[in-house]
């Protein structure tokens, strides 16, 4: 794995060492403070170039175009909330998705299935263990955003999201987020609606370089990726881990996200 991951900088393979424990503690502090942590330069430059080369032909020839209008909750309605409420403002999201079964021998799959990565994430997130999904479509996705496309405002369904930026666009494609708008106890629909109407513009922006692993707690943090501009796609990989073995999407979910069922 040393040809893929900069293990001199990040001791993911030696979590019990002093360096490994220091890395875990630093990431936990960042996660507590910012709701996320980043590992810049995790992927070696030559391997990052190979990862892009492996996925680009698939993106161009056989990616699934996922285009939808949605509110920040990805729900058709919310009980007790007027359909015209500002919190239910709709946006459009569009991307072009490649699934894990389309790149079975890629370096990305090798990284995803590497046990020390899941062990590291579990240690930082203070979970007993994390496991790769047993779903050949949903376990790892590569998403390309072309000029004029964006991942619009939303809350995540999962507790945390793990992404690896493979390629930055010419311009745009910025990650923006707003913390403190809601909690598990308080949905704060008025605050969410005000923000979406630009009456509460207190948002932050994160710029990451390709090769950076980002772990983000987006369940209660509103976030988006702004519209991409230029001829160079924004390409990002999403790595999905669960606290139990054998996790799979339903056929309905796979059809909705990828246009097909898993074998």
Structure description:
It is a single chain. This protein has helices spanning 18-34, 45-62, 107-112, 115-125, 189-196, 251-258, and strands at 36-39, 64-70, 91-99, 131-132, 140-145, 151-154, 161-167, 171-172, 175-178, 204-206, 213-216, 222-225, 228-229, 234-239, 241-242. The protein has a single domain (18-258), classed as q2cbj1_9rhob like domain (Jelly Rolls, Sandwich). The longest helix has 18 residues, at 45-62. The protein has 263 residues and is of the alpha+beta class. It is globular. The mean pLDDT is 95. A 7-stranded antiparallel beta sheet has the order 1-11-7-14-5-3-2, with helices on both faces. A 4-stranded antiparallel beta sheet has the order 6-12-9-10, with no helix packed on it.
Number of helices: 6
Coarse shape: globular
In whole angstroms, the N-to-C terminal distance is 29 Å
Radius of gyration: 18 Å
By CATH, the superfamily comes out as q2cbj1_9rhob like domain
In CATH, the topology is named Jelly Rolls
Structural category: alpha+beta
Order of helices and strands: HEHEEHHEEEEEEHEEEEEEH
Can you tell me the number of structural domains? Answer: 1
Query: Number of DSSP strands?
Result: 15
Beta-strand content estimate: 25-35%
The main sheet comes to: 7 strands, antiparallel
CATH domain class: Mainly Beta
Work out the helicity level. 25-40%
Mean pLDDT score: 95
CATH architecture descriptor name: Sandwich
Strand order of the largest sheet: 1-11-7-14-5-3-2
Low-confidence stretches: none
What is the strand and helix layout of this fold?
Layout: H1 18-34, E1 36-39, H2 45-62, E2 64-70, E3 91-99, H3 107-112, H4 115-125, E4 131-132, E5 140-145, E6 151-154, E7 161-167, E8 171-172, E9 175-178, H5 189-196, E10 204-206, E11 213-216, E12 222-225, E13 228-229, E14 234-239, E15 241-242, H6 251-258
Antiparallel strand pairs: 1-11, 2-3, 3-5, 4-15, 5-14, 6-12, 7-11, 7-14, 8-13, 9-10, 9-12
Helix pairs in contact: 1-4
